[in-house]
Amino acid sequence: MNFSITIIAACVLLALTDVAPASCGSNRRREPPRNLNPTAAATPTPASNEGKEMKVLAQGQYGKVAEPFLVVAREAEVYGELRALVAGLPELGADFFEKHAVVAAFAGTRRSGGFGIEFEDGKGGLIDVTVTPPPKDAMVTMALTQPFKVVSVPVGEEEGVDFELHGPWALPIFRPYRVASGEFTTGGGFAGRFEKLALTGLLNITRHGKLVTLLFHLDGTGGEKKRALRVAATGLERAADRFEIPRVDAGTLVDHPRPPLRVTGRFAGDGAKLSLTFDSLPTNVNDGFDGMGNLEATATGPAPPKSKPQSEM
To answer: In this structure, are strands 211-221 and 227-239 parallel, antiparallel, or unpaired?
Structure first.
């Protein structure tokens, strides 16, 4: 066989198997080149919670929470406070929360039994939480009940949890706040570029005991691209007017790869004023991104009133 024909045939065979050494005249590399200007590129969108199987950790009719309430636990300390409210929840270590969130829904006081709580995939990866009434002909206890349900939701380290609100968990259980002023600095990566954003938008807050749940609906403007934080997270009261959320997904405020944020908050003026500080958690990721910032917000509505027992919703 002609030697040159043999070389050509070998190169063709290697090309078909996606291997192209320099001796065959190929300059193709299997490792993609690094982006030397990462802040100018579109922020990757993490996989949503949509279609992921939720596992029931606990549910029942007689809970310890008489008012409608939601909890999103992303680390062990917040989960420990939730365990004090729900008997029988399993012990979960820090490694569990690297890939899971624990979500709890308390439906408030009902005039009878038979009510349930359902978690379903909502639009855009949101979690849709609803109350299911008892069947019309069902025999139920006529005593007051406090239905609850706790599930684990598979999420990645850089994913968050957010809700589509209905029924007892509609916005009246949250106190609304509007951002008066705020700023956030984000950046890093291989090129080490940073940009400063103005924070605007809304926050909604509900509290039970030491647990504080926030719904973030923030926008970051003034940078090279649109950024936002749309997530629900629960933290712990540290003092009468202060709280901390140990772990919050950064949304698109920070590019990937990035660590979660720690959020500390302080109330003033009998809760009418709110200050938040954001800091990225420590990370070992080389050439990663991080962010830090703060905001001041003012309540646009009163604290939620105590609700009355409901027969249906």
So the answer is: antiparallel
